[in-house]
Write a structure and sequence with these properties.
The complex is a heterodimer of chains A (456) and B (454). With 456 residues, chain A is of the alpha/beta class. Chain A has 17 helices and 14 strands. The relative contact order of chain A is 0.13. The chains are: A alpha/beta (456), B alpha/beta (454). Strand 1 of chain A pairs antiparallel with strand 3 of chain B, so a sheet runs across the interface.
Chain lengths: 456, 454
């Protein structure tokens, strides 16, 4: 019993988070930066932040993750981090030669009041930024929002910096995929290709954090959204912002700067959310949905039909990032399952609003004290048949003997998320396979001999 | 890429029989270099983490707590309170108005509920900057609940990971000397700097027990507050892993007159030496030495045939070693020599001048020695020196694999015991299975030269 300390009785806490269902902004900013081709993320703060974020991403992807740090000392904390950052920019361009440096701040540099945009301007004025190279920056104090906020802030900075303002419109759309896996970004691109819609997708970590083994270590892998693509996204006819928490800010920036209209949609997880994405794509571009995607949808619905007896009425506890949980919750309801406990560490009223619509009877909470401890307490009070969330659910799963599907960030103890998507109809099929496998494995394991069946 | 070594770092790279300059170390990392180092908080957190019946609360924004939640495989034989993550999760308004009250209220809620034997309160960058008086809060709470509530001054920016070790040692020093030592025999030691990864501390303790030595406290593997409190009753401190707890050993020497010796439990030679050194310290009890010899003889006889097997398979292969503390590198070099492997790249995140002098003597001509290195340098030298194996931690693993060479984790994330005699065989087995894995047959580079990096 690893979580023997969990008390069944739920008591309001106000100063304390136990076993968090979130982490801090900079790691999200780092992940988003890695979705630009040839980009070096840079952490403006103490060395530890950068080391932790790199380790977290490395554990999640089993890939090398490169990022620089301003390596704050006590001196820089008193006198400001300007000289560290200037030196860092100079060193990074000289040695690592990236196309872009994407600076994010930390609680330390924010609190001492470093003005990163002014420092960046100084670096440009001093000639430390070579011609054709770029430095972008996002403010990501750890004490505001969560890792999701950091991701959104960096996406917004990308959207603010690169797109060129132009009267000319190109026959293309922008897709902001939100915080999903490289596999999901790849899948969205496959769907766009199937519909023959020209697009710019950013950030795009496919080809960066799922890089193949080639016998050499590419410091900047071949994936990521290329600068010319980012520049031309101001000329797109429309922006699809997938996930309100992750993508709305960037879409707003694009509209402000380049007047690209946008709509916020859910990340296409499950049947309905994918339908909405497809329909909107079709509406905006005038393209029809190809038979191939129609067939995939049919296959997904077919699986649900075939397996409904194993899905219907099963209670589910899920936790993680709001943009993922919202469509996932909808999907679970659509396939006859019953989400009963939902937790997200990321604050924001929109989450509550959507949960009220989707699962009015469930326990749900987000923001402060919405942590894994609370989730465990809820489960103790009302047991569930399935847990869905990141690796940190494994303690509850083990202690309470509940089937567990890993989804979200971080996943430190299984592979697959980098390569197999959960978005789109194909992703829906994979989700179903995972859900059904763990539920049916448990049925097999628990069945008394006479009821142990060959055909299920 | 023009030059793979930052100009500012050229004195932190040294090549045996080639370099004429001295190796520079103990330096702040160069800003903008992709250093593999962490911060002060990280140093404190890893050292204190294994104290299993203490409550560990991180006073800061959520990241510092979430990234150090259950990150070490430091096993506990009983309580598991250390594996639960507690944080004050500071928000913007706390940064403006101060977080002391939040900390106080969190502690007042937690202590009655979990009844810990002690509490460690970790300071982070932000609490250092906003000037929260953690010490005062701890004192107040100590008086209310009558258990030690200890501030850990681990503000991230205050130095390197090494300074975090010091902060952790200062925190431990507040417990040392507060317990009853009347029942402790003369033949007794503490083991410092052993974290019980994969149960290693239990193996080591067993060897000493067989010699008739009582282990009063292991700091901090499978740690218990009560044991730490009475650790000043031991006759000798045995310090493993040079970096982390030497500072506490020095403090205990000064305050309680307890001498200390430095040992390594990794590798046959060093493991045996660490038993003999303890036996020699208790020279007035000759039977201890005899028992130590017996332990060594029995254990070595058990593993010798196995070693021969690995030697014939691995002899002539080359290794690169990049670890946290330099002391670990010494042991690794010696252990690899035992199976005929040479070390072509050796380095550490936190070694000091003395460490590097010893490292220089130990390694073969041509060996590259690196202080506070980065992925680019490491890749470059690993390829240049044609290493077959990389020994390092979490951030180095995927680089090694991308380069198409074997890897052995010698850090927090190892799942198998590598210390002691049994650990030696585990280590060779791991090296063997990684270096000779059939997957390398699929590497493009194996057909000819290792490819240059782009």
């Amino acid at each position: 019993m690893l979580l023997r300390h969990t008390d069944k009785k739920v008591k309001e806490r106000n100063a304390l988070t136990i076993n968090p269902a979130k982490t801090c902004q900079p790691v999200g900013a780092m992940y988003a930066s890695l979705g630009i081709h040839g980009c070096m993320p840079h952490s403006h703060g103490s060395q530890g932040c950068c080391a932790y974020h790199r380790s977290a991403l490395t554990r999640h992807y089993k890939e090398p993750v490169m990022a620089g740090t301003s390596s704050f000392t006590e001196g820089s904390s008193v006198f400001g981090g300007q000289s560290n950052l200037l030196q860092a920019i100079d060193n990074i361009f000289n040695v690592y030669d990236p196309d872009v440096i994407a600076i994010h701040t930390t609680c330390l540099s924010e609190t001492i009041g470093d003005d990163v945009s002014q420092i960046t301007q100084k670096a440009i004025d001093d000639g430390k930024v070579p011609a054709g190279k770029h430095v972008i920056q996002a403010s990501t104090p750890s004490y505001v929002g969560s890792h999701v906020t950091g991701f959104a802030n960096m996406c917004a900075s990308i959207a603010k910096y690169f797109p060129e303002v132009s009267e000319l419109k190109l026959d293309q759309v922008n897709v902001l995929p939100g915080w999903v896996e490289p596999s999901d970004m790849r899948e969205i691109k496959r769907m766009l290709l199937a519909m023959q819609i020209p697009y710019v997708l950013f950030p795009d970590t496919s080809g960066v954090l799922d890089a193949p083994q080639t016998g050499s270590h590419m410091f900047f892998p071949k994936g990521g959204t290329k600068i010319p693509d980012l520049k031309r996204c101001g000329k797109s006819i429309f922006t699809f912002a997938l996930g309100k928490f992750c993508s709305e800010l960037a879409a707003l920036e694009l509209m402000k700067k380049c007047s690209v209209p946008f709509e916020v949609l859910d990340i296409p997880i499950g049947i309905k959310a994918t339908d909405r994405f497809m329909m909107k794509l079709s509406e905006v571009t005038g393209t029809s949905i190809p038979q191939m995607l129609e067939d995939e949808r049919g296959q997904l619905v077919d699986i649900v039909t075939d397996m409904q007896q194993y899905l219907y009425g099963k209670k589910v506890a899920l936790y993680g990032d709001p943009d993922t949980i919202i469509p996932l919750c909808e999907f679970l309801v659509d396939i006859g399952m019953k989400p009963v406990h939902i937790v997200s560490g990321t604050p924001g009223k929109y989450f509550e609003q959507r949960m009220k619509e989707l699962v009015p009877g469930a326990n749900f909470r987000n923001g402060p004290q919405a942590d894994m401890y609370l989730m465990h307490q809820w489960i103790k009070n009302e047991p569930v048949d399935l847990i869905i969330g990141n690796t940190y659910g494994k303690y509850i799963s083990r202690d309470e003997n509940i089937p567990f599907v890993r989804l979200g960030f971080p996943i430190y103890d299984r592979i697959g998320h980098s390569y197999f998507p959960v978005v789109g109809y194909k992703g829906g099929m994979r989700l179903l396979e995972k859900i059904l496998s763990v539920i049916m494995d448990k049925m097999d394991a628990d069945a008394p001999e006479e009821k142990f069946e060959l055909v299920m | 890429m023009s030059s793979n070594v930052l100009i500012e770092r050229k004195n932190q790279v040294w090549i045996k029989s080639e370099s004429i300059n001295e190796l520079t170390c103990d330096k702040q990392s160069v800003a903008g270099s992709v250093s593999q180092r962490a911060c002060v908080f990280c140093g404190s957190r890893v050292v204190l983490y294994p104290v299993a019946d203490a409550l560990h609360i991180v006073h800061g924004p959520i990241g510092c707590a979430s990234f150090t939640w259950d990150i070490r495989g430091s096993l506990s034989s009983g309580p598991e309170l250390h594996r639960v993550s507690f944080s004050t999760d500071l928000r913007e308004k706390d940064v403006i108005y101060g977080g002391e009250r939040k900390l106080e209220s969190a502690l007042s809620e937690l202590i009655p509920k979990y009844q810990p034997n002690a509490v460690f309160v970790y300071a982070t960058c932000i609490t250092g900057i906003i000037g929260d008086d953690i010490k005062a809060v701890c004192k107040k709470i100590t008086n209310i609940f009558n258990i030690p509530v200890i501030p850990v001054h681990s503000e991230g920016f205050k130095g390197t990971k090494k300074d975090g070790y010091k902060a952790a040692c200062s925190a431990l020093a507040q417990l040392v000397g507060t317990g009853d030592i009347t029942a402790i025999p003369k033949l007794s030691i503490n083991i410092l700097g052993e974290f019980n990864l994969a149960g290693e501390a239990w193996m080591i303790e067993e060897y000493y027990k067989k010699m008739g030595i009582e282990v009063v406290s292991i700091l901090t593997g499978d740690g218990r507050v009560e044991k730490i409190k009475k650790s000043h009753g031991a006759s000798l401190n045995v310090v493993q892993c040079s970096g982390s707890l030497s500072y506490l050993a020095e403090m205990m020497k000064e305050k309680y007159g307890i001498p200390f010796i430095r040992v390594s439990y990794f590798g046959i030679e060093d493991m045996s030496q660490s038993l003999y050194d303890v036996a020699d310290f208790f020279a007035d009890y000759p039977e201890v030495r005899l028992k130590a010899e017996e332990v060594v003889k029995t254990e070595i006889n058990l593993i010798l045939p196995e070693i021969q097997k690995y030697r014939s398979a691995l002899s002539g292969k080359k290794a690169a070693v990049y670890v946290g503390g330099a002391f670990k590198a010494f042991s690794l070099i010696k252990a690899l020599k035992l199976i005929g492997m040479s070390v072509v790249v050796a380095g550490s995140q936190t070694g000091n001048q003395k460490d590097y002098e010893q490292l220089k003597m130990l390694c073969d001509p041509g060996c590259v020695i690196l202080d506070d290195s980065n992925p680019l340098e490491l890749s470059e030298y690993v390829i240049q020196k044609k290493a077959d194996l990389f020994i390092g931690g979490v951030k180095e693993r995927p680089i090694a694999f991308k380069l198409g060479i074997g890897f052995c984790d010698h850090n927090h994330e190892r799942k198998i015991a590598l210390a002691g005699y049994e650990g030696m065989i585990n280590f060779f087995k791991e090296v063997y299975s990684s270096v000779l894995s059939p997957v390398w047959n699929f590497m493009p580079c194996r057909n000819g030269e290792l490819k240059e990096i782009v």
